[in-house]
Design a protein that fits this description.
The protein is mainly alpha-helical. It contains twelve helices and two strands; from the N terminus they run αααββααααααααα.
């Protein structure tokens, strides 16, 4: 790049951010792996300065973490982190579904139906990467339809690290499907669409909450037991439930 161009350093920094983020999310850099500035700079063909700035940005996003006197490493997630993330998703995405039932467009409903059809046709093990992309887009369409700018921004930030980083931290889920998840997803996704299409805000909020709580419970069991199955497990005991809200009780 032209060193006399004042925009050039910023362009390099953004390029390094994007390249480093992609490398982490794709698994090229593994959870717990140290990101030495000189090594990353050599690998990307840049100086250490944009790498240092990019690492600071990714630390703010939650993709990497700073360890005092040791440097930066790709963040690892614990089972407790799984519980926290699903609690946050349950709260925020059920709220987004509530507002989406008021604001979703016909075009967005068409896209949701098409995504569900595609997901239902990608149930083989080799289809898992595509299925996860489709699932992510399904949820993105729903929360974007809420038309609440800050809610959409926060959920996009959360989905930036979920599920790629989260699942990649655990061998039980990194490259394997959860055995019963697909059958639950198919019915729950269509239930979400039905509530949105009807404009039923209470039902949309309820179905989305149940969907995410159920997914979190099944993932939690798989991670705690190391088994990719939850048949016969008491899912209601896995600490993701919350007390019913007034809107749950009176239907408002």
């Amino acid at each position: 790049m032209n060193s006399n161009n004042p925009v050039a350093p910023q362009q390099v920094r953004h390029w390094v951010e994007d390249r480093l983020r992609e490398s982490i999310l794709s698994g090229q850099f593994k959870p717990g792996e140290w990101l030495r500035q000189l090594r990353v700079a050599d690998q990307f063909g840049v100086s250490e300065i944009p790498v240092r700035e990019a690492l600071k940005k990714l630390a703010a996003e939650g993709l990497v973490e700073y360890m005092p006197y040791r440097g930066m490493r790709v963040r690892e997630y614990s089972v407790e982190d799984v519980v926290d993330i699903y609690k946050i998703r349950t709260f925020m995405e059920s709220m987004a579904a509530h507002y989406a039932a008021e604001n979703i467009t016909a075009e967005e409903l068409v896209e949701l139906k098409a995504l569900v059809t595609q997901m239902e046709g990608s149930l083989d093990q080799e289809d898992l990467p595509e299925h996860r992309v489709l699932n992510r887009r399904f949820h993105e369409v729903v929360f974007t339809a809420s038309r609440h700018t800050y809610l959409v921004h926060e959920l996009k930030q959360l989905w930036m690290i979920f599920p790629s980083m989260l699942w990649g931290s655990f061998s039980a889920t990194a490259i394997n499907r959860l055995s019963e998840q697909d059958s639950y997803d198919m019915g729950e996704h269509r239930g979400i669409i039905a509530a949105l299409e009807e404009g039923n805000v209470a039902q949309a909020e309820l179905v989305m909450r149940q969907h995410i709580e159920g997914s979190g419970n099944r993932l939690f069991v798989a991670l705690k037991t190391g088994k990719n199955s939850v048949v016969g497990k008491p899912l209601e005991t896995i600490h993701l439930k919350r007390k019913p809200s007034h809107s749950d009780e009176d239907g408002s």
